[in-house]
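Weekly structure sync, notes
Attendees: PL (lead), two postdocs, one rotation student
Agenda item 3: pending single-chain targets
PL asked that the sequence for the first pending target be pasted directly into the notes so everyone works from the same version. It is reproduced below exactly as submitted, 391 residues in total.
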Amino acid sequence: MPKSSKSKSPIQPEGQGVSDGDHDAAELPSALPKYRRILEDLREAIEGGRLKPGDKLQTEAELGRVYQASRITVARAVNELMQHGLVSRRAGSGTHVLARAEDKGHVFGLLIPDLGRTEIFEPICQGMMRSPLARRHSLLWGHAMGEAEQQGPEAEQLCQHYISQQVSGVFFAPLEYSATREQVNHRIAAALERAGIPIVLLDRCYAPYPFRSRHDLVGVDNRAIGYVLTQHLIGAGAKRIAFVSRAHSASTVTARIAGYREALYACNLRPKEDMAREGDPADPAFVRRLLAELRPDAILCANDLLAGRLIATLGDLGVDVPREMRVAGVDDVKYASLLPVPLTTQHQNCHEIGAMALATMLDRVANPAAPVRDILLQTTTIVRSSCGAKR
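Predicted structure, written out during the meeting:
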């Protein structure tokens, strides 16, 4: 690709000119996908020293003009550089080259009370371990925790263990379903803050909306998930959509309910009564009340576990899914496609969340005074039989 006097070379920091000897994007094999050409060009510039720690990359729009690529393509390349710990992107200040990590590896603690119960956290941890950044670092897994009411004391005990071990940081998935979860989550965060140990939150914040904690968060846009799935059910023909969740759920569920209600409002489906209910969909009495009081023709569940239980209960009650009742969930866990009626759900790439969480933690360790960030990865609607729509 010829160089333009109007565009800076992608391997030059912002504000520097172009020389005839600079590496050009056209020197990379033309068979490579365009995002990969951008990625390899920038990686070579960083690892070869032409882009130095602290240098600011050109904006995505400028890189797009140089490579004749879309903003989405450029963003994909930059995101992969972030996952490899080569650059850091911050709102309002652009993307900068990171200093090389010290040769000494870090030890990080995993404080995930739902590990082994909620299926998203195991692949998130796998994503951390499989990241290229994990080679020099170690993860402490702690121990399996008891039922909801036992998790609080056990989580605080594990927190103190990590403090005594002087770990470099803690990946924390705040407790849910316990009546005392808010107090426990705040005590854990406060103890780690006093010890000077960085925290990266996984999946959710422990502060109730609209408040925000002082720690980085890596997850997905749960409000958008609620909106998209509700809109999908409406498109499949649903007119009366209920939302089912468990009591004391995390803030992620509150956000999904907000998106669900927003989609109903946007599509002019405004039932007189509130159709968001808390209960156990494995309980036939709860499901009977739900059907009798709300008369729904579709039910959106807070997660796939609840949706799977609901489908089983509806079957026991003689309600056909999807002919008489459309059902959708969230997460796209392993068994979602194996249910008696395969489940329509919203897929989140847990491996990518894990890899980004590790990159975020390393960035936080290297830059403790940097602004706090919410990093939300994209999700995908997976259409299966339970919603009554064609794939």
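Discussion points:
- The two ends are 41 Å apart (CA to CA).
- The chain is about 40% helix and 15% strand.
Action: rotation student to compare against the earlier draft before next sync.
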